[in-house]
Amino acid sequence: MSNSTFPRMHVSLYVSNIQNSVLFYSAFFNQKPDKVKPGYAKFVLESPSLIISFVENKEKINSQFGHLGFQVDNAAELQNRLSAAKNTGLQIVEEMGVACCYAVQDKFWVMDPDGYHWEIYQFTKDAEFNDPRYADVSLSGGPILEEVTTESKVSVCTPGGGCC
Fold first, then answer.
1. Domain 67-139: which topology?
2. Exposed e or buried b per residue across 51-90, where buried means at least 16 C-beta atoms within 10 angstroms of its C-beta
3. Is the pTM of this model over 0.70?
């Protein structure tokens, strides 16, 4: 087995409406998709090195998926990404100083149109405990976010909301 790293990760998610997903991810990733075809879109991110594609197939969306995330290197980068997400109008839940996955983290969450939770976080330090809100692994998708509409407000993370 080679000691080299993989050059780029690829993720493919099923979505219910490709146009809604393209609008959301264009705002979230702050870039246009690299490819859009009927029922399909692909974004190629340079940093982190990720290819993420979306296939329109409502029947295959998995509600038990969990969540996806990006770790940032420092507080300034977290604040820059949080400000950028707010400026694009994405619905956000902020969690600062939480003990999640036996680590203290500052983070924020967004949810795409099909309910996929994205966590953007900065690791602060190891912790010897896990916040009780994250103890119920059956609810490990991320914080509970309301349906995204122009008039909705994001609810706060609920007990058992899930993380990592």
1. 2,3-Dihydroxybiphenyl 1,2-Dioxygenase; domain 1 (3.10.180)
2. ebbbebeeeeeeeebebeeeebeeeeebeebbeebeeeeb
3. yes
